[in-house]
Design brief:
The chain is α/β, with parallel strands linked by helices. The chain is 46% helix and 20% strand. The chain starts with 11 loop residues before the first helix and ends in a 5-residue tail after the last helix. The structure holds ligand C2E and magnesium ion (3 copies).
Length: 278
């Protein structure tokens, strides 16, 4: 036990809990400065055509290069940002940075592929969200088709009507919306067809054991069937093995994202991934 290891009166559990709380407090304290002082970094993960290996898009994923804690993953600080309201300035930074990158890639003469950014529910519900996104695109004269937004199912659950109204305006503006982590939330199938979305991203938890677990495979097949019926595009998340790619191809799921094709990397390293087919 803790005592026999010389751990004093705290158990290992208490210790790590305390550490976690302390880390959270530090993150809370430092986040504002991080947004203002350029400590955030945007990584990009490839979305790839499962038939050709061709790069068909990227997802922008934020990281925080904390001066003392090192690289902090989003799952640690996004919840902190959401609780404090800092998620709005944070995601505005993400949008601006992604747009700057789209412009930089265009200037390098690279094939134009869409960049997806994640939008939290709090940010989505801001009254000026559509204007704010559009003006960020206008600033750099970016084709609306080059930006996609990923929203989670849970973001859809509340204020259904308001969400539908906001998403419709994005759709009218030519900005595609993906439903992220699909299958993990509580999307009511009865209103799926009312949502003005373009794409479903099948959550990694179903893809993980798709080659070994009949249930996961059945769920994925069901999602694919529904997506076709609703004329939605599909992206499979969290592909790690060749066998998963082969099966998805058999199921006629042609866009995938995952460590098999590439982890999220800094923008400079994305060109490496675009040569997958060669
Ligand atoms: P997400 O949007 O579902 O992004 C995919 C996450 O799955 C990424 O984690 C990515 O690294 C990871 N992933 C991709 N392929 C694989 C794989 O093959 N295996 C495994 N084990 N993992 C894989 P990351 O970058 O740590 O981001 C985690 C989550 O943080 C994202 O999940 C997203 O919900 C959130 N996030 C990141 N950036 C933002 C942002 O700007 N705004 C908001 N609201 N959330 C963000
Ligand atoms: Mg996402
Ligand atoms: Mg996802
Ligand atoms: Mg996910």
């Amino acid at each position: 036990d803790a005592k026999s290891r010389g751990g004093g009166r705290f158990s290992l559990f208490d210790h790590s809990r305390a550490q976690e709380n302390q880390e959270r407090l530090i993150l809370e304290r430092d986040l504002q400065a991080a947004i203002e002082q350029d400590q955030l970094v945007l990584f990009y993960q490839p979305k790839v055509d499962t038939r050709t290996g061709e790069l068909v898009g990227v997802e922008a994923l934020v990281r925080w290069k904390h001066p003392a804690l090192g690289m902090v993953p989003p799952l640690k600080f996004i919840p902190v940002a959401e609780e404090s309201g800092l998620i709005v300035p944070l995601e505005r930074w993400v949008l601006r940075t992604a747009c700057r990158q789209i412009q930089a890639w265009a200037r390098e003469g690279r094939p134009q592929i869409p960049v997806a950014v994640n939008i939290s529910q709090i940010h989505l519900m801001q009254t000026d969200i559509v204007e704010s996104v559009l003006s960020t695109l206008e600033e750099r004269m970016i084709d609306h088709r080059l930006l996609e937004l990923e929203v989670t199912e849970s973001a859809m659950m509340h204020n259904e009507e308001q969400v539908i109204a906001i998403l419709s305006r994005f759709k009218q503006a030519g900005i595609a919306i993906s439903l992220d982590d699909f299958g993990t939330g509580y999307s009511s199938l009865s209103y799926m067809h009312l949502l003005p979305i373009d794409c479903l991203k099948i959550d990694r938890s179903f893809i993980k054991d798709i080659t070994t677990n009949e249930n996961s495979r059945a769920i994925v097949e069901m999602i694919l069937t529904m997506a076709r019926q609703l004329e939605l595009r599909i992206v499979a998340e969290g592909i790690e093995y060749e066998e998963q790619v082969a099966l998805l191809r058999d199921l006629r799921c042609f866009v995938a994202q995952g460590f098999y094709y590439g982890k999220p990397v800094p923008a400079e390293e994305i060109h490496v991934c675009s040569d997958l087919s060669s």
